[in-house]
From TrEMBL:
<feature type="region of interest" description="Disordered">
    <location>
        <begin position="1"/>
        <end position="21"/>
    </location>
</feature>
<dbReference type="InterPro" id="IPR012675">
    <property type="entry name" value="Beta-grasp_dom_sf"/>
</dbReference>
<protein>
    <submittedName>
        <fullName>(2Fe-2S)-binding protein</fullName>
    </submittedName>
</protein>
<dbReference type="Pfam" id="PF01799">
    <property type="entry name" value="Fer2_2"/>
</dbReference>
<keyword id="KW-0479">Metal-binding</keyword>
<keyword id="KW-0001">2Fe-2S</keyword>
<dbReference type="InterPro" id="IPR006058">
    <property type="entry name" value="2Fe2S_fd_BS"/>
</dbReference>
<dbReference type="InterPro" id="IPR001041">
    <property type="entry name" value="2Fe-2S_ferredoxin-type"/>
</dbReference>
<dbReference type="InterPro" id="IPR052914">
    <property type="entry name" value="Aldehyde_Oxdr_Iron-Sulfur"/>
</dbReference>
<dbReference type="Pfam" id="PF00111">
    <property type="entry name" value="Fer2"/>
</dbReference>
<feature type="domain" description="2Fe-2S ferredoxin-type">
    <location>
        <begin position="30"/>
        <end position="106"/>
    </location>
</feature>
<dbReference type="InterPro" id="IPR002888">
    <property type="entry name" value="2Fe-2S-bd"/>
</dbReference>
<dbReference type="GO" id="GO:0016903">
    <property type="term" value="F:oxidoreductase activity, acting on the aldehyde or oxo group of donors"/>
</dbReference>
<dbReference type="GO" id="GO:0042597">
    <property type="term" value="C:periplasmic space"/>
</dbReference>
<keyword id="KW-0411">Iron-sulfur</keyword>
<dbReference type="InterPro" id="IPR036884">
    <property type="entry name" value="2Fe-2S-bd_dom_sf"/>
</dbReference>
<keyword id="KW-0560">Oxidoreductase</keyword>
Amino acid sequence: MPQRHIPQSKTTHADTPNKTLQAKTDDSTATFTFTVNGSSQTLSLDPRTTLLDALREHLHLTGTKKGCDHGQCGACTVHVNGRRVNSCLCFAAACDGDTITTIEGIGEVEALHPLQAAFVECDGYQCGYCTAGQLMSAVALLDEPIGASDDDVREAMSGNLCRCGAYQNIVSAIQSVRANKPSSK
Ligand code: FES
Ligand code: FES
């Protein structure tokens, strides 16, 4: 049974070293620019707006899902500068100058990311609500120094919950891609 905690490899943006708030703010708005899936985006929002809400409500990138909105489920996982984060725990304005990747940025219908193809092949989802977050964590995990076993993958993915209980098939999908990944050595 997965434990409900954020794995060490998943951070809130506040954990990023040397990060200072660069966005211009006045009493009611913060103006900031970041790159999302390769496109520069400038937004002026309430400085309390989360990265999750900025992506979904203002950039209409609704592939990233809101589950708990409290850092407990991982449905909102995106990459900030290549690291997986829970976007519900990040202020969008704190991402000024950052590079964001969402589920819309990792593959196309006609050119799936290998993990997307593996989730289909291994039946790694049921309702699909958690799937975008699972995939974003899994993509990041491919470049993280975790062990080779299924238990290592379960631990690394323990911040992503699946109410449908597709865990074993998710692990199978991830392991199938890891097995085919060229060694970096
Ligand atoms: S919606 Fe962000 S962790 Fe659940
Ligand atoms: S597939 Fe339904 S919550 Fe995971």
